[in-house]
Write a structure and sequence with these properties.
Elements (H helix, E strand, L loop, with lengths): L19 H15 L2 H8 L3 H19 L4 H19 L3 H6 L4 H11 L7 H31 L1
Length: 152
């Protein structure tokens, strides 16, 4: 007997699995980029804020690595963080562009749309080059901060 107004309870054919790590990285990306925390930190804490936002983004990269994502994907994620940091250190114009370039959300999207795969030696070389480029960019950011402080 069906009672009008009461919906029939639907059973899901597969149990719903909650992926807490994925939920955390989505929340982090939403807070940092969706609520504009990352560009605002960069705006109010010139140079240091961009470095902090980039370092916070490495949590997402770490989760992707833990999930055995492709090294090429990891490299793209690292490059997104580096681009975000470089954009943010440019006074005024960089801060304005930082509101548009949402590295954390891009990294979560990359992680969701690409399946994990087996890496080749070439993939690892690409990852190493991306990490070296990132470290060089961060070195430039730190050098710029030191030069700025000395100029004051």
């Amino acid at each position: 007997m069906v009672i009008p107004g009461l919906a029939k309870r639907r059973e899901h054919p597969l149990p719903v699995v909650v992926d807490r790590e994925l939920a955390r990285v989505r929340t982090l990306a939403r807070v940092m980029d969706g609520y504009l925390v990352d560009p605002l930190i960069g705006l109010f804490l010139s140079c240091v804020g961009d470095l902090l936002g980039s370092l916070i983004g490495f949590y997402i990269v770490g989760i992707a690595r833990k999930r055995r994502e492709s090294p090429v994907l990891l490299a793209r994620m690292i490059l997104n963080l580096g681009i975000d940091a470089v954009i943010g250190i440019v006074p005024i114009l960089g801060d304005a562009l930082d509101f548009k370039f949402k590295a954390h959300l891009k990294n979560v999207e990359l992680m969701l749309e690409r399946p994990a795969g087996r890496a080749t030696a070439r993939d690892w070389l690409f990852v190493g080059a991306a990490a070296a480029l990132y470290l060089a960019i961060m070195g430039l950011v730190i050098w710029g901060m030191v030069a700025l402080v000395r100029a004051l």
